[in-house]
Amino acid sequence: MTQQRLTRRTALGALAGSASMLTGCGGSDSSNTASGGSGGSSGAGGSASGGVGASAGSGGASGSAGSAGASGSAGTAGNAGAAGGGGLSCVQPTPGCTITDDNILGPFYSPGAPERTDIRDGQTGERVVVRGTVYGCDCKTPLANAIVDVWQANSTGAYDNVGFVLRGTMKTDSQGRYEYTTILPGFYLNGANYRPRHIHYKVSHPSGLPLTTQLYFEGDPNFGTDAFWKPGLIKALVPDSDSQGKLLRCEFDIVLG
Question: Which terminal residue of the chain has fewer beta carbons within 10 Å of its beta carbon, N or C?
Fold first, then answer.
């Protein structure tokens, strides 16, 4: 008998029928708010994305019940499972292939960010260029025209919750690649502890499940006290320079379920 590997895609497909009966029951945990914190707010977690809502059990790295990821939209899980087709079959994915971990949405997501690849809006800080490729669940198929939505705090740890400073969306090119310019985000308090530097992501494509996650950076001093980071989301910052001066480069490939 062939043993099948259970993935988020197959799990969501199996739950598609029953999930449609749970609309409106995605949860409203809001016990962790950033500065407040980035644990999430009532409504914010519920709207994270259909895909992340289905993996509610892994919404926070430590399974924090108050995280926005944990309250992801169970009500839309059925639709997310149905949308996971797109011609890619990942019941038996490529050996060694790993779907990118999801992570909490946090309370500061704002829909409707402009499409652009420089999200700095005049903010000062260390310049960072992030690039990567969005793949299908086989870890081999690049996904053209995937939507990559990013947002972050400024160098002092503050989010723009009125406009779209340090927020933007972009589409991957024909090879599934994306790239944007930003600044190194600052630390901010989440309760009694500082959150590690991070950039939030929402990624979607018809051939994969929607993903809500975060990008973290190697060597951060706050991993020891933060409840939400995951090892697979930590990437290196590599010093470099160009005609504009010094910068940090980061590679963050994404594999959708």
Answer: N
